Amino acid sequence: MIVVACTLGAAVGLLPGAVSAQPGRTTVCQQVATNVGVRNPATNQVIVVLASFDERAKATLEVATKTRKGWVCGPAMSARIGRVGVRPLIDRRSGDGTTPAGVFPLGSMTAWDGQVFSFFGNSANPGVTAGPYRRVKAGDCFGATPNNVDYGHLVQRTKAKCQRPDEYLPSVKSTYVHAALISANMEPNVSGDATGEVPYASAIFLHRFNLDPDGNALATSGCVSLGLNNLVEVLKGMQSTTMFAIGEPKWLLANS
Asked: How far is CA 29 from the centre of its chain?
């Protein structure tokens, strides 16, 4: 998957781009988090990504935390999603420009060298504790060619042999400075890495905004992206049981 960055907001403090929630109101974020918590009682944190009805590639990201009094959502942060908006995972196809809608856990993957990881990046671990962090290595190629054995897996290839739609991670330095795996069609059961299987998604990440020459955040090809400061704060605050809830508000309320 060729990704074009997205951003997410922190659960504490008002970072740049944050919008304060109105006190005393039950928000969509709280309702979605409550729904997810009922179905996943082990989780105490839900990252809620709400797509915009007006602009397909734009979204907000809020971190919901479970407290004794219920679910509390942090400030809504400006995020970016697929250039064609969101689509339920079962209806999505690799390369269609959408971000999969649904509820997904933090992902886990095994690299070509045997390392298991849930976070990765071209820079050192910024302080994540929710799962193992992989510092990108020479040869890290993410397979994104549908119905190929490497689809959805991190394999070893030279840069010359890691051609689009596959991604050579060392070359994506800024966008993949840090990232988290969102478990939408991810290991251990990847649909699309064998002949005849439906390629729902090669991998969906939470990563840094990809910017145009003027510094504007661009749409992604399916991932969720945030500004760097917000991304780091969110990644550092994540838990091993964190869930991601992604979609248009009305749809997500009905399907979370």
From this structure: 17
169-211 pLDDT, tens per residue? Answer: 999 999 999 999 999 999 999 999 999 999 998 889 999 999 9
Q: Is 45 helix (H, G, I), strand (E, B) or coil?
A: strand
Cα angle 123, 170, 231; round to 5: 40
The phi and psi torsions of 182 (rounded to 5 degrees) equal -100, 125
The CA distance from 242 to 59, in Å, is 19
Please tell me what DSSP assigns to residue 12.
Answer: S
Q: What is the pLDDT of residue 54?
A: 73
CA dihedral 182, 83, 213, 75 (to 10 degrees): -60
State residue 104's pLDDT score.
96
pLDDT score for 14: 27
Contacts of 49 (CB under 8 A, 6+ apart): 8, 59, 60, 61, 79, 81, 99, 224, 244, 245, 246, 247
Residue type, 240: S
8 A C-beta contact, residue 45 and residue 64:
yes
The residue extents of the domains of the chain are 28-255
**What's this model's pTM, rounded to 2 decimal places?**
0.86
Residue 161: Cβ within 10 Å count? 12
Please say whether the beta carbons of 221 and 83 come within 8 A: yes
Element (H, E) at 72: strand 70-73
Rounded to the nearest integer, the mean pLDDT of the chain is 88
Nearest to 43 by CA among 66, 15, 23, 60: 66
Amino acid at 45: Q
